[in-house]
Design goal:
Distance between the termini: 39 Å
Structural class: alpha/beta
Number of strands: 30
Oligomer: single chain
Bound molecules: adenosine monophosphate, magnesium ion
Radius of gyration: 30 Å
Strand content: 25-35%
Strand order of the largest sheet: 8-5-7-6-10-9
């Protein structure tokens, strides 16, 4: 069988990543929809969230104690007249209109500080005697009080479009009265695993040389985690016509992720079939391990049932070895999926930890090696798992991160700082 591939174009990791980011900058999200705030976590915000009033809406006490005029505490101990008590949520007409010189108001955390007072002295530094209180410590003006509008002014921007909503963002939305948010629709991502040896998970008796399909499931899980909707297609055999039919089907989604069939073997047909379909290839490999044969391109999606042209769809050919599939999804498919999901672009961020033991590698490729990050606070350390290469799912499941080693390093000494990519 003669295999006509796309011209080889193997990039450094940085260049390959840049190419994906450049393409990702051109894609559009797929419209918007409203969601209930309770289930909006993890979705991508498609509207601006503004402060509907000043935050806090009144000068807020951050302590239980006494609202005072700081100047009254120049001489200590000081004795002040207690003219009232304010609890959180106090009715406005029960709040003393003004705290005068020599006066104090008992106040609780979260309650509004009355006019005239400029600080709150903590209850711990006071001794109450009925209508009077003795204060043993001074306070600076402003201490233990958050002024009205200090956190945000009415009308100011709190959350921008393109934000993947965290619990902190949800809290902000709730605090300005948004029980529903407009978010971007989740992109549909087709998953197409390939390989004659691959059988379904439900196959109760795989033949002695058959392998259960794990990639479709790990990739679907990564898609869900990244905010997409997986559309898992049947496994494609290593046979051009059937593969092509399934690729055609996959190109109808917003993104197509293939696994397997992109190495140099005689039956690795993914590039060949996509070439025949006039696909454009941005790269056909990246200098990384695992995941070197990763392919990125774009292919016309044909016409809809009503004859409308569907434009073109980005695809990634992820290498079939399960760990390569996971790593290349993380490094390359993720930024494209995030862009399709309407998410603002952000840089890859790596943590750093000390290597627990020496690591020796051959230079030339940027490595992403399964590892275990452990230790607490300042003592985090990381250690490679023992593995049998990029097909070793069991070792990778024991790992909780990847150690990232630059291509010019031959060894990392025990105790050296190394970059760590979390999963
Ligand atoms: P390939 O990239 O097609 O050469 O496959 C590389 C290795 O990954 C082979 O050992 C395959 O059996 C294995 N592999 C490919 N696809 C899958 C899959 N969907 N699930 C599990 N293993 C796979
Ligand atoms: Mg294969």
């Amino acid at each position: 069988m003669s295999v006509s591939r796309a011209p080889s174009n193997v990039l450094s990791f940085e260049d390959a990543r840049r190419v994906v980011e450049e393409q990702a900058a051109h894609v559009q999200a797929r419209g918007t929809e409203p969601v209930d705030l309770l289930v909006a976590g993890g979705r991508v915000l498609a509207e601006l969230v503004l402060a509907d009033r000043d935050l806090p809406p009144f000068p807020r006490s951050t302590r239980d104690g006494y609202a005072v005029r700081a100047g009254d505490l120049a001489q200590l101990p000081a004795t002040l007249d207690v003219i009232g008590e304010i609890k959180a949520g106090e009715k406005i007409d029960r709040i003393p209109s003004r705290v005068g010189s020599g006066q104090a108001v008992a106040i609780m955390t979260g309650a509004p500080v009355p006019a005239g007072a400029d600080a709150v002295v903590m209850v711990e530094y006071t001794t109450g005697h009925g209508e009077r209180v003795e204060v043993a410590r001074g306070v600076a003006a402003g201490e233990n009080v958050v002024p009205r509008g200090a956190e945000a002014r009415q009308g100011s921007l709190l959350l921008d479009r393109g934000l993947r909503l965290t619990e902190a963002d949800i809290a902000v939305a709730a605090s300005v009265g948004k029980s529903e948010l407009e978010v971007y629709r989740q992109p549909r991502v087709a998953v197409l695993s390939t390989g004659d040896e691959i059988v379904d998970v439900d196959d109760c008796a795989p033949g002695p040389t058959q392998i259960r399909n794990s990639n479709s499931y790990s990739v679907a899980s990564q898609i869900l985690k990244t905010g997409g909707q997986p559309v898992v297609l049947p496994v494609a055999p290593d046979e051009p016509q059937k593969l092509r039919r399934l690729i055609d089907e996959g190109l109808k989604s917003d993104l197509l992720l293939l696994t397997g069939g992109v190495s140099m073997g005689r039956y690795d047909l993914v590039e060949q079939v996509l070439s025949e379909m006039q696909a454009e290839f941005f790269f056909t490999g990246a200098k990384i391990q695992p995941g070197r044969p990763v392919v990125f391109g774009k292919c016309g999606a044909g016409t809809s049932d009503r004859g409308r042209s569907l434009g073109s769809t980005y695809f990634f050919g992820l290498p079939g070895n399960p760990v390569s599939t996971m790593v290349t999804f993380e490094l390359f498919a993720r930024p494209m999926l995030e862009a399709l999901a309407g998410q603002r672009r952000h840089k890859l961020v790596f943590l750093h930890a000390r290597a627990k033991a020496e690591i020796r590698i051959k230079p030339g490729l940027r490595r992403f090696l399964p590892a275990i990050l452990s230790g607490e606070f300042e003592n985090s350390e990381v250690e490679l798992v023992t593995w049998h290469g990029s097909g070793d799912i069991a070792a990778t499941a024991r790992a909780n991160c990847y150690v990232v080693i630059p291509p010019d390093r031959e060894s990392i000494r025990a105790g050296d700082w190394v970059a760590v990519m979390m999963r």
